[in-house]
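idk why but the lab printer keeps eating my pages so im just putting this in chat instead. protein + 3,4-dihydroxybenzoic acid:
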Amino acid sequence: MAKITASVYTSHIPAVGAAIDLGKTEEPYWQPVFKGYEFSKQWMKDNVPDVVILVYNDHATAFSLDMIPTFAIGMSDSFQPADEGWGPRPVPVVQGHPELAAHIAQSVIQQDFDLTIVNKMDVDHGLTVPLSLMFGQPEAWPCKVIPFAVNVVQYPVPSGQRCFNLGQAIRRAVESFDEDVNVQVWGTGGMSHQLQGPRAGLINREFDNAFLDKLIADPASAAAIPHIDYVREAGSEGIELVMWMVARGAMADVAGGQPPTVAHRFYHVPASNTAVGHLILENS
Ligand code: DHB
Ligand code: FE
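predcted complex ->
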């Protein structure tokens, strides 16, 4: 049967993608950011999954105000990297896993979550920057990826609690897939940042670190954070953190298993306009 072995959490800053693509990772501004991912790249080599369920948000690349799915699952066998404003990133095409994606859609919808099925879409920095941070610059991504988009851009957005519950439903779906597939769930975006209005540039280290503590040790209390608190404390784009709750909900302890092991924890300010947060949690 398929199994969720670990979850990964990371910011998805587009300028980080540009720094990688333009060979700037050793520059003094960027060096401390990428240093925080050195462990992760080795860990990824040692723990390559078959499939990553990559929970991310689209930034008006695949979706627009014409159509706003709250939760959308990518069903294709491939997804093209899209224009980021710096031009399309020179990264490999993302290979999907249509069979597992279809199984997850069937199972999760029957568990009363309304997913939008997407048979064709491009993927932006929300998805490709986390891949680059974890895998570096390979010729081809070393595993399949199921893009799982959450609307955190246009209100109303889903609550952290609903995202946490969704992660639990995804776990049940994966564990009922009748093939030996090693699966990781990644939650991306965050941490505190605000890109607009009078509070543009807002960073809240205290909130971010308390969130990381709670996410690790008491995810149910992290799930109870109301969306207005994310916006007030972590800024308008800090709401991206609800996507981390999906990945956390998919871990074994939430279903009565052992608490996860923290393989890696990293926090750094600044990178572009955000605080960078990163965690790797392993199921025992
Ligand atoms: C930045 C961060 C984001 O999450 C994003 O989607 C776009 C820009 C930034 O830090 O500039
Ligand atoms: Fe973003």
